[in-house]
Amino acid sequence: MNSPAVELRGVRKAFRRRERESGAHWWKREWKDKVALHELDLTVDKGGVTGILGPNGSGKSTLIRILGTLLTPDAGRAFVFGWDVVDDALEVRRHVNRVSVEAAFFKELSPWENMVYAARLYGNTGGTRRRVVEILETLGLPRDVIDQPMKQLSRGQQQKVAIARSFLTAPSLLLMDEPTTGLDPRSKKEVQSVLESLRSQREITVLLCTHDMDEAAAMCDRVLMMDGGRVLADGTPGELSTRYDAPSLEDVFMHLTGKRLEAEEMEEVAP
Ligand SMILES: Nc1ncnc2c1ncn2[C@@H]1O[C@H](COP(=O)(O)OP(=O)(O)O)[C@@H](O)[C@H]1O
Ligand SMILES: [Mg+2]
């Protein structure tokens, strides 16, 4: 099959929510459409790590959720390896796995037990001890923590188990939604080293959402910069620096939007 890993054509997604007009009384709230993705066109070829960079609220998770069949587009179509995320959702799910910041585990159970549980959920009983241990060790998880309760692991280690779990189904497309956000520097490094090793695996395509520009510069073969539900720039980190004559990705973002990414760190809070 020669379809690209991801193809989006005119994908739009809006959320209805109640908002107060500026100047209106606090109790007067109107239903409004908040557009999370504006008619997005995008093609991602197989292999490599593609970064989706943008501040909070720029539409990264919405994009990831659409590709993971957790949300349906309001308009346009999205394909994963040629499968339509709406019409062929089951096929898409077989090829996709999502790792998010808040990975859900049974905290009292060990990584091994969580992995076996996941393997059974995915319908394969092939989660042999040796294979699971092998995956966990490839990710650099010390052998002795494999049988400890999850709650005793560092967040970086837990995140590694989440990544390992996503390998159980041999996903061809790995959707990583801010896998290092909120981790301490050491855990962050641990997860990044896993990402680094994924870069060389051409049979896996990774979409990595982050708002960490240095991480993106170091990890990604290609970077899409998003803001307000649109892709503002697309290229290798080097190309973007050259194109906008900006030494870092942070400067590229500044050039494009007139604002720093840091200033946007605050989560949008409903009034
Ligand atoms: N379930 C939802 N209900 C209402 N609004 C949402 C929902 N999910 C996302 N949004 C809004 O859509 C926009 C994009 O959000 P999101 O895709 O989560 O951005 P990011 O992952 O880049 O932070 C934001 O304005 C957010 O508030
Ligand atoms: Mg998000």
Kindly describe this structure.
The chain is α/β, with parallel strands linked by helices. It has a single domain, classed as P-loop containing nucleotide triphosphate hydrolases (Rossmann fold), CATH 3.40.50.300. The protein contains nine helices and ten strands. The strands form two sheets. A six-stranded mixed sheet has the order 6-7-8-3-9-10, with helices on both faces. Strands 2-1-4-5 form a four-stranded antiparallel sheet. A hairpin with a 2-residue loop joins strand 9 (222-227) and strand 10 (230-235). The model is unreliable at 263-271 (pLDDT under 50). Residues 60-61, 177 line the site of magnesium ion.
Essential attributes:
single chain; alpha/beta; Rossmann fold; 6-stranded mixed β-sheet; 9 helices; 32% helix; globular; binds adenosine-5'-diphosphate; binds magnesium ion
Question: Biggest sheet: strands, sense, closure?
Answer: 6 strands, mixed
CATH class category name? Alpha Beta
In the CATH hierarchy, the third-tier topology is known as Rossmann fold
Q: Shape from CA axes?
A: globular
For the largest sheet, list the strands in their spatial order. 6-7-8-3-9-10
Radius of gyration: 19 Å
Secondary-structure class:
alpha/beta
Present as ligands are: adenosine-5'-diphosphate, magnesium ion
SSE layout and pairing:
Blueprint: E1 6-20, E2 29-44, E3 48-53, H1 60-67, E4 75-80, E5 83-84, H2 89-95, E6 96-100, H3 111-121, H4 129-138, H5 155-167, E7 173-177, H6 185-199, E8 205-210, H7 213-219, E9 222-227, E10 230-235, H8 237-243, H9 249-257
Parallel strand pairs: 3-8, 3-9, 6-7, 7-8
Antiparallel strand pairs: 1-2, 1-4, 4-5, 9-10
Bound molecules: adenosine-5'-diphosphate and magnesium ion.
Adenosine-5'-diphosphate is lined by residues 15, 17, 34, 36, 54, 56-62, 268.
